[in-house]
Automatic annotation (TrEMBL):
Top-level lineage group: Eukaryota
Domain C2: 5-123, 157-273
Recorded family membership: Belongs to the MCTP family.
PROSITE patterns on file: C2 (PS50004)
Name of the featured protein: Multiple C2 and transmembrane domain-containing protein 2-like
Pfam families: C2
Keyword presence, Calcium: yes
InterPro entries documented for this protein: C2_dom, C2_domain_sf
Keyword Metal-binding among UniProt keywords: yes
Source organism per UniProt: Galeopterus variegatus (Malayan flying lemur)
Entry keyword set: Calcium, Metal-binding
Taxonomic placement: Eukaryota, Metazoa, Chordata, Craniata, Vertebrata
Length: 273
């Protein structure tokens, strides 16, 4: 029995480390879908665009068919310096019967783009006539982290001093996109609902701020889980709302909802978020 418990613990630790690595992005890839140029829509009456980078996906708004559709939409992807990958872009059309058809595609090698500058790209479409005009900016950012409670990043006085200096009044105009950051300590949950037939749950906690998501590891067969984790988010909009949701892990099935709380950032008054 001890061997089973030990191997299970090692497996859970490995899963936890893998989850942690997949959440720690190094910056933001800001993509502005500006417009299409001479796009051939055929018999389609409407058009939209899908953008995919790894498991991150966005869909543009749907516009009436036009050779030069004006989307003017911005999407933020997470930037991983060790696995940038290829941005896949697809243009789709809809006809009057709501049938969807892929009209054309194009790709962008994100790793080949320079950092910290706006890259204006005109991308010819494959499989159909026309091109897409995009603006892509890769901005590295510090502060995103997942750590144990015992090594909380703000526990070090010298680090707190550096943070106060970084966001003091005299430095407030140096980087208009660097609004600040939010640190959340996820300690525990008490008296959760039992989602399994055994009378227990397999809870994990999901934190969402804008388009950013971080989550804890799963604690199996427990209604009073203790995660004791510290999460740090970059703040892009002071009007965002932090949403904290507890789910029950259910294998390959979608997780079951156990509870949720929403906290507007403006409801907090701390100088270091």
């Amino acid at each position: 029995m001890r061997r089973v418990k030990g191997s299970s613990l090692i497996r859970n630790l490995r899963l936890s480390e893998s989850l942690k690595k997949n959440q720690l992005w190094n910056g933001i890839i800001s993509i502005t879908l500006l417009e299409g140029k001479n796009v051939s829509g055929g018999s389609m009456t409407e058009m939209f665009v899908l953008l995919k980078l790894g498991d991150q996906r966005y869909k543009s708004k749907t516009l009436c068919k036009s050779a030069n559709p004006q989307w003017q939409e911005q999407f933020d992807f997470h930037y991983f310096s060790d696995r940038m990958g290829i941005l896949d872009i697809e243009v789709w059309g809809k006809d009057s019967k709501k049938h969807e058809e892929r009209l054309g595609t194009c790709k962008v090698d994100i790793a080949a783009l320079p950092l910290k500058q706006a890259n204006c790209l005109e991308l010819p479409l494959e499989s159909c006539l026309g091109a897409l005009l995009l603006l892509i900016t890769l901005t590295p950012c510090a502060g995103v982290s997942v750590s144990d409670l015992c090594i909380c990043p703000l526990a070090d006085p010298s680090e707190r001093k550096q943070i106060f200096q970084r966001y003091c009044l005299q430095n407030s105009l140096k980087d208009m996109k660097d609004v600040g950051f939010l640190q959340v300590k996820v300690l525990k949950a008490v008296d959760l609902l039992a989602a399994d037939f055994s009378g227990k749950s397999d809870p994990f906690c999901l934190l969402e701020l804008g388009n950013d998501r971080l989550q804890t590891h799963t604690i199996y067969k427990n209604l009073n889980p203790e995660w004791n984790k510290v999460f740090t988010f970059p703040i892009k909009d002071i009007h965002d709302v932090l949403e904290v949701t507890v789910f029950d892990e259910d294998g390959d099935k979608p997780p079951d909802f156990l509870g949720k709380v929403a906290i507007p950032l403006l409801s907090k008054s701390s100088a270091v978020w």
